[in-house]
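Changelog note: in this version the structure field was regenerated for every chain. One regenerated record is shown below for reference.
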Amino acid sequence: MAPGHVAYGMRAQYGLNVSPDTVVAWERGHARPDTRELTALAGVLWCSPGELLSAATTLREHRMARGMAPDDLARRIGVDAKAYLKMEESGRWRGNERQTAALAQVLGLGPRELLNATGKDADLAEVLRDAATTRWQAYVRPAAKLLPMRRDHLEDVLQQLHADYQARMVATYSWGDSGGSGGEAGREFLDRIVDHFWALARL
């Protein structure tokens, strides 16, 4: 369907004044429709909103892909609607552990998808680096707030990360390395700590 026909359908059927140029911008990824526009676009194209979002990454995209209104999602996860919208618009999730688990369940997000959608990648990397280099037990709870994982499985993964990092550092001292290649191996491990975490977690 040509952009002009799509724009006409959205105006005639849904009362939305969208130009053909806007439709082209959506197609090329230069702009994104809001919730009302996405619903109307899906209606005109005879498909679901989720089919128009090929690879949802943000909270807004995951919510829209499931055809949920912000108020409905906020109610189901136990968050004030205005507070949820603020978090969705900023890309920074600030819910507690219970709300985070509810968010993942309602939107059907796996741990990786949840982490990307809530903008917590850097937070997880910091927690994992600290767990590997100090007492891993102290970072179980902070990690659990970021990811809906079974506590015992999370503990096993953090313990293994810690052991892997410490083994590299012990090897450094055993080789008599004064900060060269052995220290570099430790830094490289920490730089890729999130990748190591996912490999161990197998999620």
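Spot check on this record: The CA atoms of residues 11 and 17 lie 5 Å apart. The longest helix spans residues 151-174.
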